[in-house]
Amino acid sequence: MATRRDGEAGGMCSPIVFPLQDTCGTIERVAELLEATYRSAHLGNITDDVLAETVYILLTLQTQEPVYQRVLGAMRKRFPTWLEVMNASLEDLEAVLRTGGLQHQRVVKLQDLLQAVHADNMQRGVGPAAGGDLTLEHLRDLGAPAAERFLLGLPGIGVKSARCIESYALGGWCLS
């Protein structure tokens, strides 16, 4: 049994006792009602690639959902690797990001972020240092505080973005 306090007239509080039966079923039902009312919570996040999710979150800033999903798809089609995105000319990358608006600012933030990831990968001996693409997969091995500190050190990533990345790509539960 759990208790909850409700205010009564005169400021007095008395405990109200209610059973915690079928908590999982209740949570699932609430989730169903929320989804029916507000639509699916699935926003196209990329949970199997930490860097892809980081870029995805960066592209979502000040952009509507259908637009940023299209922009990410177009960018990945034109530049299949993160190294190609990092090394793309400003003009080529701006052309791909144009439909999302603010393309110049996005290109600068995106390439700054990817250059920081590149420097980190080279220092760690992973990704391009080992013949692969840029990666942030090492964040999966860190605890939440260390992963968040790392993410906050990346250009263009603030607290809310870091916590969204933690929640979606690193399986964490944190409020953004």
Determine the mean pLDDT: 81
Number of strands: 2
Question: What's the quaternary structure here?
Answer: single chain
Task: Give the low-confidence spans.
Answer: 1-11
Strand content: 5-15%
C-alpha termini separation: 31 Å
Helix content range: 55-70%
The assigned structural class equals: mainly alpha
Shape: globular
In the sheet with the most strands, the strands line up as 1-2
CATH topology-level name of the largest domain: Endonuclease III, domain 1
Any idea what the radius of gyration is?
Answer: 21 Å
Order of helices and strands: EEHHHHHHHH
Main beta sheet strand tally, sense and closure: 2 strands, antiparallel
CATH-defined superfamily of the largest domain = Hypothetical protein, domain 2
Query: Helical region count?
Result: 8
Structural overview:
- 26% of the residues are buried.
- The protein has 176 residues and is mainly alpha-helical.
- It is built from eight helices and two strands, in the order ββαααααααα.
- The longest helix is centred in the middle third of the chain and has 22 residues, at 103-124.
- It has helices spanning 23-38, 50-60, 65-78, 82-87, 90-97, 103-124, 144-152, 159-169, and strands at residues 2-7, 13-18.
- The two termini are 31 Å apart.
- The chain has two domains: 2-38; 50-169, Orthogonal Bundle (Endonuclease III, domain 1), CATH 1.10.340.
- Residues 1-11 have low confidence and may be disordered.
- Helix 5 (90-97) packs across helix 6 (103-124) and helix 7 (144-152) crosses helix 8.
- The chain is globular.
- A two-stranded antiparallel ribbon has the order 1-2.
